[in-house]
Amino acid sequence: MHVFYEPRIAETLALSNEEAKHAVNVLRMQNGDVLYVNDGSGNLFQARIVESHPKKVTLEIVERVQTKTAPRRVRIAVALTRQADRLEWFVEKATEFGVRDITLLVTHNTGRHKVNVDRLNKIAIAALKQSGNVFLPIISQPTPYKTFIHQADASLKLLCTAADDCDVKSVVAQHMNVIALVGPEGDFTAEEMKLAVDNGFVPVNLGPYRLRTETAAIAAACALSLM
Amino acid sequence: MHVFYEPRIAETLALSNEEAKHAVNVLRMQNGDVLYVNDGSGNLFQARIVESHPKKVTLEIVERVQTKTAPRRVRIAVALTRQADRLEWFVEKATEFGVRDITLLVTHNTGRHKVNVDRLNKIAIAALKQSGNVFLPIISQPTPYKTFIHQADASLKLLCTAADDCDVKSVVAQHMNVIALVGPEGDFTAEEMKLAVDNGFVPVNLGPYRLRTETAAIAAACALSLM
User: Fold this and answer.
1) CA dist., res. A35 & res. A59, Å (int)
2) Three-class DSSP category at A157
3) B85 with B187, same domain?
4) Which end of chain A has the smaller Cβ count within 10 Å, N or C?
């Protein structure tokens, strides 16, 4: 089962440059071959190749495949990690868990302020095709902490912190739209924590030990996917 | 707070070569300085340096620090991944989540049969010191699937599979000693699944999408740490 990503498939009925090249030059697909197209917005289509060219593969839709959907809309707001590969791993895992939005935060203790969002998007697309998830996470540009806190909107907002005694499982049930906020190495400052709590974030822990930034973000994604 | 790892601290009252070198040459610690020693078997000690030398640091114990313990004993039995770094990430995350035992499995669809367990142990020790967990996971050498299935013993044994409709959260409560079995890329064969079920493993899913081997293993570790 070969899955391709094409966000505008429903309009264009075609695979674009890179995906077309992969289908024709690498997989040697031909007219009449059947493939699957994920549009990253909730749809998976079974389609048949009408015309194959390495620069454009024209398709006809056979059917819209019924897909499972994640039961809860989850946004993970995570501070930038010092090492880029740790954030890349998180994006891959978050996509597998069905996280819908990823906000990259710049906090007081964040070591860097820049990130290659294009590269993160490519990692998310690869994970999307592999995992069978049909919602490509929307990844933000780095966002100042205060800006995010003031605009964050969900039925439950979690401030993930090792310091708190409240278990995540005790608060998530019934909430279908959840934000989890995860701090940087060196954690949030006391002021940043207060700002979050003043804006309705509920402090919860993610287990008994100190988790690295990307581990806490993965734990939040996993817990909110499974609980 | 500087934390060192020394499994025999209670007998030797000293840091061994590598840790001693780090304390004296890198951190420039001196007689009278206070540090923490994690023995990986459930204990964290506060200690004071009596004699510092780059090859041996002699200590006196100040006190045994009260530590949180993971509420459940978890073993993750995971098929070897094709790429070594994916398994290394899992070991780091599993240590942060407090997993007690890691069994590396060779199954029908496992791409490789060898792994550098020494390297995995070093990664686990680094994660142990960083996370505040005091139980170093015991990592097995690669083990044939059948051998493991026949000797696996716990109050709950989970067969993690995307195919099943049973949620992990519906079965774990109350069980304090749990094994989670995670298959390779290409999944277990039908025979391997039957063997597990025949030996008391309960099939459960870890969410709606297909998870990579190391993601499923991390998800199991996280779920069993938080639920």
Assistant:
1) 9
2) strand
3) yes
4) N
